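Our working data are protein records whose layout never changes between entries. Instead of coordinates, the fold is spelled out as a row of discrete tokens. Here is such a record, shown just as it appears in the course material:
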Amino acid sequence: MRCFYVLQKAAKAGEGGDTVMTQTFMKEKKILPLVLSMSLPMVISMAVNSLYNIVDSYFVAKLSEEAMTALALVYPVQNLITSIAVGFGIGINACVAFYLGADDKLKADNAASSGVFLSIIHGILLMIFCIGGMPLFVRMFSSDEVVISMALAYSRRAFAFAIMVTVGIAFEKIFQATGRMKVSMISMICGFVTNIVLDPLMIFGIGPFPRMEISGAAYATGIGQTVTLLVYLGVYAGGSLSVQVSRKKLAWDRKLMIRLYGVGIPATLNMALPSVLISALNGILAGFSQSYVLVLGVYYKLQTFIYLTANGIIQGIRPLVGYNYGAGELERVHKIFSVTLKLTAGVMAAGMLFSWILPHTLIGLFTTQESTVSIGVTALHYISFGFIVSAVSITVSGVLEGLGKGSQSLLVSFARYLIIIVPAAFLLSRIFGAKGVWMAFAIAEFITAGFAYAVYRKAV
């Protein structure tokens, strides 16, 4: 109830002074204060979102290293579900923001309503296919029956909440498109608090709960995601959102569908590519030791946290880019890009610094095995050399998605996650062993940065 009270209060206050029913501040406010005001709530939201996996991993690590390996194997598919939801959500976000900027309220309502309905369909299909395909997927990367059993126990329960994930993210992107960043922030906090409270209770069987171990982690996460969705629905029911979501507003307009999926599909692929990358690298690293697979899984949980501020900034500027593009303010779009690039580069410089100052502490959160920690520290040192320059490709992709140029953004992501890094990892692993895989990360970031900037200059 506290969450609903805070959100309704924020709605009445107009989200920091901006009226609920207009978004003209997006093209009137000074660029730097505007980017910061839109991004800060999203940075907090991203921090909370990344903590879902971090918290699960922290408590699961207390069970055994096999349990952590199981989570590492499930992570690519779990990330795939989120990627599809977020990717399509970006399509909804871009459409709603564009139509609001063009002052076409009806089309904005159509985009929001159709987006939510399609997200429900996506959630149902993902639940069915991911649960059904997990036995085959897990056995591709492990022959340890204990690890396989744990991975399947976790995935069956976690994936049962796929609809909550897809619909929750659809509402998140709709609220963001209207500038309602604080709603997203508080909704995620409510879900995370639920998760962090339930995790130890359900994993270890504290209080009224039986000991469920890794299954309890899945339930805690799913219930937290459900709470986040319920908060969005509660705020929407309060009538403070400037777009309407209803069956009456559903529109199967061909141009609208092309816009939604034209951005949504490339954005989904952008988000899903890291899962493909993890699977490919797992295949390379498994030839050396299961410990390297574990370290890669740990790194991807950490890198979500390391990149969260940069990604939060990107989430904050997408609706700004879309709105100003729809309003014909192309010069402001260029200024938003420039300010965002400087901010993300500064954030990633801090990420590199922490990776060198606190590597043992960061890796030690997930394993107590000294040999595994040593491997993780080495990985973090090599990979972090590419952090700062990665700001270029991150910013370019975000701006292109905000402009509705999904195919160009996808080109950048393909270069970053597949075309360069996978061949480089394979070749370097043959020369330097597992360290070659870690080297490939930084090499890919430097090459992709040059390519990404060229794509931006041509597209905008």
Notes: Residues 41 and 182 are 6 Å apart (CA to CA). Residues 4-21 have pLDDT under 50 and may be disordered. The longest helix spans residues 65-101. The two ends are 45 Å apart (CA to CA).
